[in-house]
């Protein structure tokens, strides 16, 4: 039995941080970072059956073209992803009354819709990126046993290419769900490696008043290639989503609307339009899937 100190439930029986019960979520789930973006998606639903919010975690479940879908805000960073995916998995794969894992496990479909900056000059603003791999620079997933789901060869190549300081922890690489890639991908989408940082400033190479450990890291990442894959963009959630989903048996895919290009120094003239187009595209694909 899983102890109450390990799986914490609220007095109403909902999981601690998300404030959800099993009946509140669909098996198709869209992640967004910003809680205000939840309703930018659910405004397209035919109906909404459930809505709640606790802290930065806002959840709405409803129907879009006959498909039951949950939209949830995760907040920023890999630490929040650790909370969200573990508690979602508990909702479908642990009996919350007996506190025992279920014999028959459920696989969720998790699709992240986010915004990001491109690291490559040939991936312009207002384009879409599908993350074939998540490259975790954050070290969160190293708390788990990940060798069976990670790409050790790509990890070692990245460490060598960047002369990575292992005092920061070894980066990890996790692939997206092949099932969801086939369902969502289009020829117009850019594909590659999405790097996931554990912070916004120093971990992504930004310098304000503090010096950073490797001022050349971003330029090293720009020209890293592994097979046909290059690092397309840098954000703060994808690798953690891929890692925990793979470990727990869920399908995960991350999609980003590119609103900035750090190589060219450009920013989208209408970033909301790009995000809205990615939302509409993704909802249609889920409904058809």
Let me know the number of strands: 14
Level of helix content?
Answer: 25-40%
CATH C-level name = Alpha Beta
Strand order of the largest sheet: 7-12-10-8-13
- The CATH fourth-level homologous superfamily: Nucleoside phosphorylase domain
N- to C-terminal separation? 36 Å
Shape: globular
Can you walk through the features of this model?
Residues 29-276 form the Nucleoside phosphorylase domain. This is Uridine phosphorylase. GO terms for molecular function: purine-nucleoside phosphorylase activity; uridine phosphorylase activity. InterPro entries: Nucleoside_phosphorylase_d (IPR000845), Nucleoside_phosphorylase_sf (IPR035994). It holds the Pfam family PNP_UDP_1. A hairpin with a 4-residue loop joins strand 13 and strand 14. The chain is globular and about 50 Å long. It has a single domain (28-288), classed as Nucleoside phosphorylase domain (Rossmann fold, 3-Layer(aba) Sandwich), CATH 3.40.50. A 5-stranded mixed barrel has the order 7-12-10-8-13. It has 289 residues and is an alpha/beta fold. The model has no long low-confidence stretch (mean pLDDT 96). The protein has helices at 38-42, 78-93, 152-162, 178-184, 217-222, 238-248, 271-288, and strands at 28-32, 47-54, 57-64, 67-73, 94-95, 100-101, 109-118, 128-136, 172-175, 190-196, 225-226, 229-235, 251-261, 266-267. The protein contains 7 helices and 14 strands. The longest helix is centred in the C-terminal third of the chain and has 18 residues, at 271-288.
């Amino acid at each position: 039995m899983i102890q109450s100190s390990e799986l914490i439930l609220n007095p109403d029986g909902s999981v601690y941080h998300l404030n959800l019960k099993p009946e509140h979520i669909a098996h198709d789930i869209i992640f967004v970072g910003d809680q205000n973006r939840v309703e930018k998606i659910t405004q397209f639903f035919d109906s909404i059956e459930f809505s709640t919010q606790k802290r930065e975690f806002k959840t709405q479940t409803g129907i879009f073209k006959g498909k039951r879908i949950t939209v949830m805000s995760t907040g920023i960073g890999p630490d929040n992803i650790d909370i969200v995916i573990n508690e979602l998995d508990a909702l479908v794969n642990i009996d919350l009354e007996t506190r025992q894992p279920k014999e028959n496990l459920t696989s969720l479909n998790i699709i992240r819709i986010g915004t990001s900056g491109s690291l490559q000059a040939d991936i312009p603003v207002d384009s879409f990126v599908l993350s074939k791999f998540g490259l975790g620079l954050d070290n969160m997933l190293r708390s788990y046993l990940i060798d069976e789901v990670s790409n050790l060869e790509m990890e070692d190549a990245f460490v060598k290419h960047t002369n990575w300081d292992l005092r920061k922890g070894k980066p990890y690489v996790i692939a997206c769900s092949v099932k969801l890639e086939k369902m969502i991908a289009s020829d117009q989408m850019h594909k590659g490696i999405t790097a996931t940082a554990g912070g916004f400033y120093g971990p992504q190479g930004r310098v304000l008043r503090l010096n950073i450990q490797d001022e050349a890291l971003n330029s090293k990442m720009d020209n890293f290639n592994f097979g046909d894959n290059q690092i397309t963009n840098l954000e703060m959630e994808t690798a953690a989503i891929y890692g925990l989903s793979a470990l727990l048996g869920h399908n995960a895919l991350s999609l980003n609307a590119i609103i900035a290009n750090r190589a060219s120094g450009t920013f989208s003239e209408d970033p909301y339009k790009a995000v809205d187009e990615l939302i509409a595209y993704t909802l249609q694909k889920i409904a058809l899937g």
